[in-house]
Amino acid sequence: MVMALAAQINSVLKQQPIAARAALLFGGALVPLIFAPFNVWPLALALPVLFWWLTADQAPRRAFWHGWWFGAGFFGTGISWVYFSMRTVETPVWISLVLTVSFCLAMAFLFALQAGLPALLRRWLRVHWLLYPVLWLAFEGLRSTLFTGMPWLLWGTIGTDTVLRGWLPVGGVFLLGFLLLTCAAALWQWRPSVRMSAITPVLLLLLTWGGGAALLDRDYTESARETPLMVAAMQGNVDQSIKWQQRQIVPNLRLYQRLNSQHPEAELLVWPETAITAFPEDIPNHLHDLDTELRANGKGLIAGLPLWGEGSDYYNAMRGFGAARGDYAKQNLVPFGEYLPLQGLLQGLIAFFDLPMSGFSPGPAGQSPLQLELGEDSWQIGALICYEAAYPGLSRQQAADSHLLVVISNDAWFGRSLAPAQHLQITRARAIENQRDMVRATQNGISALINHHGQLLVRTPQFEVATVSGQLFLRTGQTPYQRWGNSLVWLLAMLTVLVALARGYWSK
Length: 508
What we know:
By secondary structure, this protein is an alpha/beta fold. The protein has 2 domains: 2-219 and 485-506, no CATH class; 222-337 and 359-477, Nitrilase/N-carbamoyl-D-aminoacid amidohydrolase, CATH 3.60.110.10. Helices cover 46% and strands 15% of the residues. The protein contains 18 helices and 15 strands. The chain has a 7-stranded mixed beta sheet, with helices on one face. Strand 12 and strand 13 (456-459) form a beta hairpin. Its EC number is 2.3.1.269. Pathway: Protein modification; lipoprotein biosynthesis (N-acyl transfer). The chain crosses the membrane at residues 23-54, 66-86, 93-117, 129-155, 167-190, 196-216, 488-506. It is found in: Cell membrane.
């Protein structure tokens, strides 16, 4: 009876493209429910099934546009926070809306291509169902790199709060995402009357969940220091509308110094992204006094601030004070807040409408870790600023030679959207992949201390002045993901393609 009902629904949707596209738009819009703060993980299996079910056997043109409607829903709800990014830098409402909608609809063409490509390939070969999760993986990789990348809501990120997180130190979010998508594809092809079709989803689900459980909380790294590190992160919750005003520079500093004083036990203090709203050259005496006080007390501070680069370039950066030394300049900027995608093509639009972009330049690649000097020991600190935590590859580089990860952020970019909760989940995935303890300090929440298994030790509420403090461990060693990166998942994907091509050939 269930199969008959499904067949009837399928027939209606195939004959009514408008109904199919409405279903795909709605399904794409549900994607954020998979991730924090909702964590409805079964949708990670159900929504790809819906996508393939309604696109896979269509003519190329219809499959293309069906896929586009799913993408419009996906990005329309999943990355609509770019609107808040533009409003944060006082872009007019109507321009923010036009650019946000245009960006989301343009990104939707990635799903259009993903749906249209196999329909086109069917003209020359039999497209086996195993190719579909490989294509989804490939387009996630493309999305993560195209025009500096939009690696938001990668499928494998859902593993942070399930036994599936056991896979993350092995192959990262791309490996876990590929396993989930392969399970979904097997469910899509489930036929109870065909023996292999009936048991394949069961076997893949057992492998994915059982493997995750077997690998769960396995330690690939170890503590590099006998005693834990006492850390504290500050959340100033300074109103974004006044934060950058000239008269606010000193009050901002005093606020964070006052928060510092609440944690005399801390060896490392962390202030959020652009907590200091002036270039060091403009407030040398204040920063000298701050550095001197920290050195006298044997404490390190890592704080976000702007730094001058070469020529007229300036960076969104962090700097170490006291026992912490070194600088780091943000390499991946927030789209529509810190840079405009396709800025070269849209330069005239920026000038015509006088769009208030921040003007930050991306920092250079290959920057050294910050240093934390405690007694006779020197420890390396891997640095990430805000949106950079969404990039698994960059996080892997920053963690490779480091004992601790420090993430500073200004999630005011995201307003009261779902993005702050999603951002925290993404950040936790980076801690798990690299098995490094992590300090996360944000301007307005969510600040947190995270252990090397991605567990939240303590966190702040949003939109309040708050601090978090506790013990973290400096760690050494490499996870399989740190050692091999995405090599394992791409090898598995290539083997899957070979199997799919062979099965497609022999079943002609």
